[in-house]
Amino acid sequence: MADSTTQQAGGQAGQADERALDEVVRFTSELIRLDTTNRGGGDCRERPAAEYAAEQLAGAGLEPTLLERTRGRTNVVARLAGTDPAAGALLLHGHLDVVPAQAADWSVHPFSGEVRDGVVWGRGAVDMKNMDAMILAVLRLWARTGVRPRRDLVIAFTADEEANAEDGAGFLADRHPELFEGCTEGVGESGAFTFHDGGGRQLYPIAAGERGTGWLRLTAHGRAGHGSKVNHSNAVTRLAAAVTRIGEHRWPLRLTPTVRAALTELAALYGIGTAPGDFDDPEAVDALLGKLGPAATLVEATVRNSANPTMLEAGYKVNVIPGEAVAYVDGRYLPGCEDEFRATLDRLTGPDVEWEYHHRSAALTAPVDAPVYAKMRAAVEEFAPEGHVVPYCMSGGTDAKQFSRLGITGYGFAPLKLPEGFDYQAMFHGVDERVPVEALHFGVRVLDRFLRTA
């Protein structure tokens, strides 16, 4: 019975009706209008968006649960039973919060959700209320047409992803792991979008890994004193030297299996010959990246660890040498490379500067030869046959890091078909964030196809 139901569902793949296509646009717009700005430090209220999502889930016949660690910081979780109880469950997750936006900088009000000339405008249009809307539209489509997936689907709309996830996915993983019972894989943001390489090719990178996050606080201590006196124990000087060493450090090449797979597929696509051992040779990898043109941006940030100084704090008066100086560094490390990252920071900071994690999250990797990856690839290729699916590793991170603590392998898959000239990466946290209506329609069709067959 389960097999026949699955076959029927797969045979209907791609039959997203006009209502589903209209709903994904409306849901995106209406979610944008609910201002869920996360300013950090707990200054956010996701509850209106959570209640909206829960209402749409209930309309699809599901029984959503609203959960909060902190009042107003609301998460929504629901489960849709599949036809094969023996199959591992699949997690679908999207966050409800967005980063701040200054209305004066925008062409339209960032929380208007305006639909103009075939484009939905507003904060969250790409990061990531569009994907939230896709999930809701697909589930409501299934409720109307009687579709059930093979696997159980767990749907989670989370708070606090744009800060530290303590009120969101971290809280869910720590306090409510039972809601994710049986989940073996998860699908979230940042993947399956159109990347135009400038030469006529359309790439669709699907994320199968994330660099770990190591935000650092550096503290230098010294001898406070008068600015006119000789001081060889100047905290500012010590900190500045350490920051300079970190900023100028050239990190060694470290290719993860995901990045190796990406380079292998890109080299083949571009007809670039490679020899055994090339991927272990930094000069050969740099040469390959140079031949990939714009496509190199998909991998160049993930072939090494990184550490970028971002903030400095010291002193209170120009003629006073302070006894303490502080800096912050945005560090990122590849899967399996955190020990090397820590040891390198110990060496670069030196004996006069202490460092600690201001925020830390794990690096992730996911197999690109897994059946679920093949099904994501097939779903994209069905609706974008001219495109080329490639794996990639995210340079940043998502809620997948939190859910990985439950043994859930995470992928980035929020499909969008984008026109040439549309700078997808610039939409994240940028001014005039927006998404084409046709991209949302494509996303619903691809997500529908993938979830029916997953």
Describe the 3D structure.
It is built from 13 helices and 19 strands. The two termini are 17 Å apart. Strands 1-2-6-3-7-18 form a six-stranded mixed beta sheet, with helices on both faces. Strands 8, 9, 16 and 17 form a four-stranded mixed beta sheet that branches. Residues 1-14 have low confidence and may be disordered. β4 (115-116) and β5 (119-121) form a beta hairpin. With 454 residues, the chain is of the alpha+beta class.
Label this structure with key terms:
single chain, 454 residues, alpha+beta, 4-stranded mixed beta sheet, 13 helices, 19 strands, disordered N terminus
Task: Summarize the SSE layout with pairings.
Layout: H1 2-11, H2 18-33, H3 47-59, E1 65-68, E2 74-80, E3 89-95, E4 115-116, E5 119-121, H4 129-145, E6 153-158, H5 169-175, E7 183-188, E8 195-196, E9 202-210, E10 212-221, E11 225-226, H6 235-248, H7 257-269, H8 282-291, E12 306-314, E13 320-321, E14 324-333, H9 338-349, E15 353-361, E16 364-365, H10 371-383, E17 388-394, H11 400-403, E18 409-412, H12 424-427, E19 434-436, H13 437-453
Parallel strand pairs: 3-6, 3-7, 7-18, 9-17
Antiparallel strand pairs: 1-2, 2-6, 4-5, 5-19, 8-9, 9-16, 10-14, 10-15, 11-13, 12-14
> How many E-type strands?
19
How would a crystallographer describe the biggest sheet?
6 strands, mixed
Cα-to-Cα separation, first versus last residue: 17 Å
Arithmetic mean pLDDT: 95
C-alpha-based Rg, rounded: 23 Å
Helix fraction by DSSP (H/I, runs of at least 4): 25-40%
SS-based class: alpha+beta
Q: What is the spatial order of strands in the main beta sheet? A: 1-2-6-3-7-18
Proportion in β-strands: 15-25%
| Low-confidence parts | 1-14
Number of helices: 13
Shape: globular
